[in-house]
Each structure stands twice: as C-alpha cells, then as structure tokens.
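thread: overnight batch results

M.L. [08:02]
morning all. the overnight job finished for the chain we discussed friday. pasting input first so we're all looking at the same thing
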Amino acid sequence: FKDDRFIPTHDATIFDTYVADIQVDGKTIDLALFDTAGQEDYDRLRPLSYPDTNVVLICFSVDSPVSATSVIEKWVPEIRHFCGQCPVILVACKKDLRTDPQTIAKLKQDGERPVTTDIGKRIAAEIKADVYMECSAKTREGVQDLFIQAARLSLKNRSHRKPGTSCVLT
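M.L. [08:03]
and the structure it wrote out:
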C-alpha cells in the first residue's frame, strides 16, 4: 500500500512504521501504519505498538488455514487485551491465491484448502470484527478500499471517544 507496488520477495516484518496519505471523502488523511511481527519471539515487543491505536487490521492469508485459526486463538485475545474495543478489520490477504492451481495443489497435499470467503466472514462474525475485507497485494484488488475503510473507521471511532482517551493503524 505504502509504495503502491507488489514486492514478491518481501521479508517478514519485525516492526516497521510507515506514513501514508489517502483521500477519503474529499479529505486528505495521514495514516500512521505499524506493521508488527507475528512470530512468538516478538510477543513481548509487539504490544509497544498498540498505544493510541485507532483501528487494528488483523490479517490472515487465504493460502494458510492455520493463519485464519490464529486470528481467534492468538490475535483477538491480544488485541482486546491491549486495545480494548478498538475497531477491528479482519483482512483476508493473498486473495489471488484462492484460485491459484499451485496453491490449491500444495494445500491439497496437506489435506487442506484455501480459506473461503464464507469462512472468513464466519470468523469475522465470531470475533465481532467491525468489517471483513479481502485483498491481494499482487493484483492490488481491494487494497485501496481497505485503507479507505480503515481511515473511515478511525475517524468515526475518534469522534465517539471520550476526550483524553485513545484506543494510527496497527
């Protein structure tokens, strides 16, 4: 999103921050984005990025059913603990791989299938996500809409917060 390009060899993030401008409803919004590591080694570091968060994007990959399971088992408890009732967008990433023959064949070897839209929506309902979205960084499908939705949720959430309290995109 930040550079509006797909990097096929993207290395896993430990903790990266970005600032991006986005046009939402005729206004320019500055987004502060915090991309954090999901590995267990960083469980103690990651919460440092949560203060003042306005919206949380919990992402899973459609080609990794275990990542969808971790939404419920790991991410939601952590987010609710550190961010309270901060708005959550559940994001199915790598949407393009859902119909990719190689991905389907590889998952089939392990007795699995790509995560479907219906399963994603069920997870979103179970975790009480504010929004469920799907995107593909490779094809760019849904990426811009995702960040527009996140900005709108952030602005809406900010207007309903008590003065002096805070629940940036993590």
